[in-house]
Protein 1
Amino acid sequence: MSEPMFYVGLDVGGTTMKAAVVDDQGKPFPSVSLPTDAHLGQEHGLKTMAESIRLAIQTAGLGMDRIAAIGVATPGLMDIKLGLILEPPNLKPWRNVPVAQYVRQAFNKPVAFQNDANAAAFGEFWVGAGRDVSSMVLFTLGTGIGGGIIIGDRVIEGEHSHGGEIGHMRIDLPDRGRLCGCGRRGCLEAYASATAVVARTREAMAAYRGPTRMRELLRDEDGSELSAREVFESAAKGDHLAQEIVDDTAYYLALGATAMIATVDPQLIAYGGGMSEAGDVFLAKIREYVGRFGLSYPASKVQIHYAQLGSDAGFIGAAGCARQLVMSGS
Amino acid sequence: MSEPMFYVGLDVGGTTMKAAVVDDQGKPFPSVSLPTDAHLGQEHGLKTMAESIRLAIQTAGLGMDRIAAIGVATPGLMDIKLGLILEPPNLKPWRNVPVAQYVRQAFNKPVAFQNDANAAAFGEFWVGAGRDVSSMVLFTLGTGIGGGIIIGDRVIEGEHSHGGEIGHMRIDLPDRGRLCGCGRRGCLEAYASATAVVARTREAMAAYRGPTRMRELLRDEDGSELSAREVFESAAKGDHLAQEIVDDTAYYLALGATAMIATVDPQLIAYGGGMSEAGDVFLAKIREYVGRFGLSYPASKVQIHYAQLGSDAGFIGAAGCARQLVMSGS
């Protein structure tokens, strides 16, 4: 086998799944997307996964013999070791779906199975923001906060596939903190996800008597929800209330970062998702709070940056996990 | 080399250092203790380390040729990779002490260097509470809260040697939480270390008008500090105020545990130090709060136990790190 080998990465999301062939240096061929259509049932879901993988290989113009392994990333709840999707809330009504086994049999290739946020972290570690570090934590800010922890080339999967569920680290006491989507209180996600930023903004606007352009934004587009991006844009344009919200968001994210520093002490903490367009000012604020509230020595050393791969991180990371599977000889 | 080989573990503390030879199964020979006498300077300290190691080998009745490697555990601040003690607050006036290099040259053996709390966690993982698991977190409750995280046979050292500083995970916001010895607010250590338990008890007594035997304890031994052990004993004897303090302590420790579950999701969380004598009732309380406040699935699966090696965990773990160094062929 002197010819270079390739890997397929598939990232299954609640709405669409995205797949691409990735080369040994982490460079992807053009990706393909298919609707997940979870409501059509898990048999349909598994077939769509196989179809996405086939299309990705076709798109890359490669023969099946050039594919060394396949990586599949899916949302939790899952059992990573067994290769099962258990009962993910955003893939209803799927339950106990044998993803790894199905894909393995469909293609007769080694299959790596990973949580989608872990895969994104591994993608960033392999060829993105973390390509020059030996350990990193990725926070992905969206509807919720996903995350992944990579140490010495390995994803911290957790004994029960809950490693890196860092949106559910608590930053406030459970009897006092904000209510999280998980039903508990005080989780980081309830403060700093895009959804939480909007919720905090609406609360603040209700109590705020001063002028804020965000009121116009709400009035302009009747019925449509204010977006976290609009809050960040308003802050950049000098809106005081928005600036407070953004500052608080940096503070909350920094508390999550200091918790990671005191537990796994990574070389890099990276932020992905929509908010990563908030620019250097926002990162600088996070760094400032990390310096104030983190353990002095590691807080002064840790690198804090934005993620670099955008929504490609998942399938690139899945392909990277497949590559690691082959490299480690398992 | 058909004869079985042995490892020396040395655990350097603020007051004494303790060393013993440990066999390949983690069973220690009798240990030796020498005063650390940090105030006599670091040259003296390094010589005492070498002397402890020599005495331990002598005590085991073994020739130097039977020792495969030496492990040394010391308190932080340190640089684990470089084998340096930097400026540990309880080893004043030591500074930038080249421990690993010194011991390596003194004995001409491979030397593993590790943080003392990490070493204790590795000891428990190797032959103590964690001997049957593949990942664990140890909380050691004393003057402060030390800790260590072991995942898949490896100590999570951290990029800046601050991995497992889990006493400084925050459980409350930094503008509101209790003041910690580290100068920041809200750290777990400020709530649940033995010192913090006593501090919280004194505060509660000042505000409490009901009867409590802890007042007698304070009166009995004039000038002497109430101990965390006495608080736990009082609770076991039915003292209401003490029971509240103990219950709160379990709650705080559970918050630390749920943070570990959401980050590294270990198979086992173990508690060492004096409070581990508080018995099964205390552990049951911690488990109950973990079930209430942790991510449901992993919280229902994680094992929660006391540590088993007592104050031997440090040197046994240091020897275990030495063994791992040899096994991994580095």
Protein 2
Amino acid sequence: MRHTPQAAPLVLDAAGMQLDRAQPLSEQIHAQLKARILHGQLGAALRLPTTRELARDLAVSRNTVVRAYEQLLSEGFIESRVGAGSFVARLESPAPAVPAERPHWNTPDTAIWARLQHSTIGQAHDGPPRAFRHGVPAMDLFPHAVWARLQARFWRRHAQQQLGYSETAGDARLRALIAAYLSSSRGLRCDAGQVLITSGAQQAIALCALALLRPGDRVAVESPGYRAAAAALSLPGARVIGVPVDAQGLQMQALHSLGSCRMAYVTPSHQFPSGVAMSLQRRLDLLAWAHRHDAYVLEDDYDGEYRYSGAPMAPLASLDAQARVLYMGTFSKLMFPGLRLGYLVAPAHWMATLARLRASLDRHSAIADQVVMADFMAEGHFLQHVRRVRRASRARRDALFAAWQQHFGAALPLPAVEAGLHACLPLPSLELEQRLADTALAHGVELARLSVAGANTALPQRPGLLFGFASVPPASLATAVATLKRCWPPLSADRLS
Amino acid sequence: MRHTPQAAPLVLDAAGMQLDRAQPLSEQIHAQLKARILHGQLGAALRLPTTRELARDLAVSRNTVVRAYEQLLSEGFIESRVGAGSFVARLESPAPAVPAERPHWNTPDTAIWARLQHSTIGQAHDGPPRAFRHGVPAMDLFPHAVWARLQARFWRRHAQQQLGYSETAGDARLRALIAAYLSSSRGLRCDAGQVLITSGAQQAIALCALALLRPGDRVAVESPGYRAAAAALSLPGARVIGVPVDAQGLQMQALHSLGSCRMAYVTPSHQFPSGVAMSLQRRLDLLAWAHRHDAYVLEDDYDGEYRYSGAPMAPLASLDAQARVLYMGTFSKLMFPGLRLGYLVAPAHWMATLARLRASLDRHSAIADQVVMADFMAEGHFLQHVRRVRRASRARRDALFAAWQQHFGAALPLPAVEAGLHACLPLPSLELEQRLADTALAHGVELARLSVAGANTALPQRPGLLFGFASVPPASLATAVATLKRCWPPLSADRLS
């Protein structure tokens, strides 16, 4: 007599099944049977008890068992044979040597993975703004009620039509409004066909990097400079090289000495983090350099609207007759960073390709925010808000410098700023930088370290502290300066230098 | 006698300046002087007329000219010398050989640029949903009012605290809610520390590609398959190779014959676009393959909630004892695509690195949408909505098949679907595919071509049509089928094969 599983199948013993009566029973039966099958404890072709038998053994309703079996059946763990009952499915190589513990995942061996281990980007600040958080605007002045009303209107009017996948390059009306804004307010003539909506300036940088750089290409960045830009530029395997910045901006001598470079990333309106505005001569020299080297210039105009003496400077891109400059901006510093809306201005005939690249990264930006931003601009709220935050930021800058003068005086001058949202105090050593920042934080005052915020290259890190002055009202700034005076050791420029 | 510009400067002749009295005058004066300086028409050290003289010559107010001069001064185009007036700044290499016309930008010479020329991804559909748009859920059932109310509450309550830069990995509460949802509803045990919020599943694929693939690595994708995934996977210079799909899912024989691969991208719950569910045997085989090749499996569970017979199948990742599977999902098919929220489930100790990569791409997802999505889940709206759209999608599927049976009958059977949001009708030729799709569109019926929607590799393209059935009510589906019957030439399975 042949003894095969089919002929005389073993029957599952329900004895080992423990059910928690407080939890869904059917799911537990399903999960436990599935685990036993996967771990080979229930061999192929083993007959399962009938639903009636198992229900009796487990003291549950028959329907509960039926649901569990149906799920196992639909997932392929068991098979049903007419008139014979349910059997464990015949699976080859069931669960390749399943270990009891989940093994550790190996560390990926890509170059990018290794590089990211040493990165400090993407660390968010905790809680509501306080002095002297940098990189954020006067969000306390943002007209929440207007924005919420426009959002509500979007949901009332447009929702049904616009919730699907939409244009990768961005909402057509928003693109046109940004082009008009750049032309009239920033002196950069462009039309909607040259504007790509991005998820902040960060994505504009990443898109340019991925589209235009080859592995091994050299990219010049300002040093100290914006570390998140350096991280994006190195995505395609490019080599990011720091070029020192002086009081006129990027040092052209140092740039020339690099030899061939594919791209230069600059923040000409208000260099991050030093605060310097690039001089006209340097701008012209940089464009000439780009022409000579057949290189691209990425102009990140992240806070160009904030200029406190004279009108804002026109962007580098507006001087660019040779078409070397890719211009990017963001609403993060005019509206709020959590909005994640920015833009890239590029040649119109590049737009289709850039949009496809965007599509392969994340399709497009959330549609409701784009439509509401367009409404916010079209109805005049945006320009009104820009004027409001520019005025407030100037008042806050003045409050910081007045308080500084009062408490630290001429003994330790804070270098003046005519633009942007932060001041920068250079320090003689990284140890002092760390100590002052730590002491301040222990007393509730946030100060970013220049060596960290501006660290993006192999160049020596400059020590210093960043004083963001835009995010809190003047009184809070004055209080924070007084706190620093109290908690810091006595400091003076003489002793510091 | 030395004749130098300083000694006897030429003076600007205002004669050539044309002003449009309907436009801001100061801006025009500024722009025209700047253009002349940049184009070398006003040489270095040329003295400008006094503001009084120029105002008189141009018949404008003196303040108008003062503003223009101040702007030129702050931008560095002119210099002011006490007692001597204003002079064109001495700029070296002013505007490197400025041509009259903007030159054409060269085509970038990167591999990715060339590849993107042939891509068709990112093309959005126009207008509100209609039969048979695919890839979109029953957005007409989305509870707009609830969503708008939660949005309004965000702006009332949280705005001030949460508008800045936030956690790159995503809102902590949303991550925890997604982990709980996956554990309870999808059978995938995970915790918040393993969940990264992404801008749709597309970004999850792109992150895995950039983090885990080296240039030249081979990646297996289903063919026909999701073309946008193939585009993302090729971002780091990997080689994407198609593996045919049959009624059980990915053909393992074909996968084995490829030799070494770094990664396989699959849609096991409901293969896109064929609609096949990967069998349990294939799932186990795929995991064994990944173990043997030290390869990653990307599981895109884009519409796994939609299963019309039995409960949804548990994800491949839930069978994965060897920790080879990276799991990704999206709210696009349950909520609406324009939301751009998805998630990646990965090892907790990879999370910091993946978040830094995300930060270098675009920082993080918009914060309001994350908070509102978390509220939507926490207050029970989400599971309720999932049940609602699943029920509706099943009814819509039934309506499509009933109408199809009525009009095309057994002569041209539409292959049954037990999951997902579309059916797929295979056709014998690309010519017929094109003809039927064009005719349908001319009569207002949208049908995606399988050869386009599922084209992602060098494998032969399969002709066919995709019938998305979820986005419009049953009556619209019935009408659209009747339209097809009317406008198409007579078809039958006999003649088609």
